[in-house]
Amino acid sequence: MPASVPELSSNDDILYTLRHFHLGDPATVEKTESIGDEYVPALLHAYRDTSKVRYDYPLFLSPAENTEAEVEELVKPISQVLRESVESFAVGPDAARILKDNLPRIEMDLRQKLKETEGPVSARPLLSEAGQKLQNELGLDEENSARLQTDFDKLLELIPTETQLLGYGHYAALHLLKHAIRCRLIPRRRRFHEKIEQCIYGLKTILDIDWHKSDESIEPRMARNSVGTAGTRFEPIALSDMMDHSQGAVAMSSERRERILNALQVLEEYLQEDAPILIRLVHTDGLSGTWLKKSPAFEAISDPDPCAKATKFFDQQSAKLAKVFGAARIAQLEMDDIYDPAIHDPWFTNFTWEAFSKEEILLLPAVIVRETADKIASTGMGSLSRLLSSGRPIHILIRVLAHSNPYAQADEDPFLNYRLELGAFGISHRQAVVSQSSAARHGHLLTQFLSALDTTRTSLHIINTGVQHSAKGINAWLLAGAALESRTHPFFQINPEKGDSSADRMEFTGNPQAELDWSRHSFQYQNEKGENISTELAFTFADYALLVPRIRHHFHLVPAGFESENLIPVDEYLSSNHQENIKRIPFIWVVNDKAELHKVVVSRALIFACHDRLNYWHTLQELAGINNKYVEMGVQEAREEIQAKEGAERDRLQAEHTTAIETVRNETAGEVMGRLTDILLGMDLTTASPTNTRTAAPPPAPQADTEVAEVSETVVEKEEEEEVVFDDPWIDTVLCTTCNDCLNINTMMFVYNENKQAILGDLNSGTFAQMVEAAEICPARCIYPGKPQNPNEPGLDELIKRAEPFNKV
Ligand code: SF4
């Protein structure tokens, strides 16, 4: 026990104190040892030195020309890019050995360099610096230094000049969204420009053709041509003025001409626009950094109501582009010569963003709202709801603190109330794309962004990036990963474009062990006797909460060496009922920075919060079809139906079998009686029965009446002793003593009837060997194995021999 904690006299006192702490008795606080940032959940101990943990950041951001580009084409982890690049020119383990061995150092150096840099930076200069630093640190001899430099230069050449590096920072998710937007929008815009150029050419051609039909074009030319070679001596226009113009080609109407000229003007002006803004970001002044001003084709606007402001921006932008899209459509209709003023004039007069095609919507500059969850919850819910319901394709990025309740005040305990789930709030708007992800899993995050960008809907992205200052040695990336593992911030996406049912809309990948309440991992430690112990631990919300400094007062150390059956792990406590838990105190395993394993008791308030997390997790599981009550009921029904069908089939087979056996018995008995009659009547007994191949006994010589009676007795006796041999297996069920021995061999092949006596079930479910074995052990000797069903079963000769004595009646 530490000196700061008053010594407790007995185990009962310790248990009393821990229980009172768990229940929230403030008087116990000074009697128990509080937790410092040197403690981490046991499962995270192995990762606490993040300077040695390799993770995906910095990321290489590559510009894509393909509008369908997948995540892999847009973003790659640095380790992958370095490894693949070097492998491309240095095949085999010995090629570029020094460089290959030092790639992790380069990676670490780049990560360190980008630690304080917000936003993407050009990759090549940074990589070049890292190469120089490596040379200096290694201090190689001249030959090896030259070799390393040559290899490093080759590596550098493979990095395209326009690629960027992005470190794991505060706004990593926002930068990835910007990157995804640019990669989608720039090639789309380029294609649209080409289309506009074609429209301009087409409209000019129409005007040109019309001009060539006009008086100004045709008449002077005709006048000159009509006078042959002497035409050069005349002034054609003066001559044309003197001619009759009432006959000739029909010129375009003035309305059409005006329409074409207007469209032409709009399209030409659009093409001349200088570097248009592609992304507008609206936020509430919480952002900082040079990237805000330096990003190309990007504009950041601060506004106290970002959702409302973004709506205005979107309407302005789309109204401006409505003219361009309208002009492009008019151009196409004119080029196809199908413009009908009666139909098309009113259409283009009321042409707003709601009438845009998907292709046009996807060409609009992106509008992003970036806001924190607490600000949205305190003042922005109304605006957020209006925007989510509007259908405007605006991207809303909300940053959440995974442990916190957005509704809680800054000085309030986050576990005071049930947590507001912004994801569930978004889902309630039904037509918006809603996703929950984390910058710590860039692949998942980018996939969510790309699928939202390919729709024409409002999208809400709830993002957790972790906090910078957590427990000792735990960085923001690891903390965000822990939020995912502990169900604190589960991943999902609802995309209404995929269909109307939850099964179609819900995407639930990325959650570890999604079918369980909590993810579970193996854990090894040494006990006080020095023995290596291997166990499995659940990673719960309580484990995650330990990493957040402001809620560490919900934990208290259990004195070292103290044991009690009333202390139980949090996951077990959560899965038990209230009655079972009355005496129990929940704890989690933790490890301090001296690698010592301890238990810490968890407060009741935190247990309530764990229940709340679990409840939301179960809701998401059900939406994803995992542990869904309706699905389980359906499966049960189907199972019962199959079992009923199988039972009916079994009964039918049994009935058939019984009938067959009866037939054999009757025939055998009939034959015996027939022979007896033959004997009595002095007939020839050597005649074989057509249905029985047994050889009959030789006929006795005719005798007196008394002799006949004797003979008849002998024959009957002989007939009774004669064996009936069976080819088909059967059970003489009435003899069964229900000992269960045959069912122990195969419960499908041997089943009980309604009297709990054995009958044959599915013969195909077992082997002849099992049938023989059952016959051998059956105490009632009522199992007749018959002949093998499967001629290919191994060891049949031996089995048939063993079966023989049991096939005789
Ligand atoms: S082993 Fe024989 S007696 Fe026992 S349950 Fe099976 S058939 Fe009946």
Report what the structure shows:
Keywords: Pyruvate. This is Pyruvate decarboxylase. The chain has 809 residues and is α/β, with parallel strands linked by helices. The chain has five domains: 11-50 and 537-627, no CATH class; 59-167; 174-217 and 255-406 and 419-464, Rossmann fold (3-Layer(aba) Sandwich), CATH 3.40.50; 635-723; 725-809, Alpha-Beta Plaits (2-Layer Sandwich). Helix content is 47%, strand content 12%. It has 29 helices and 23 strands. The strands form six sheets. An eight-stranded mixed beta sheet has the order 7-6-8-9-11-10-12-13, sandwiched between helices. Strands 1, 16, 17, 18 and 19 form a five-stranded mixed beta sheet that branches. Strands 3-2-5-4 form a four-stranded antiparallel beta sheet. Helix 8 runs antiparallel to helix 11 (254-272). The longest helix is centred in the C-terminal third of the chain and has 53 residues, at 629-681. It is extended, with a radius of gyration of 43 Å. Mean pLDDT is 86; it is low at 1-6 and 682-721. Bound molecules: iron/sulfur cluster (SF4). Residues 731, 736-742, 758, 778-780, 782-783 line the site of iron/sulfur cluster.
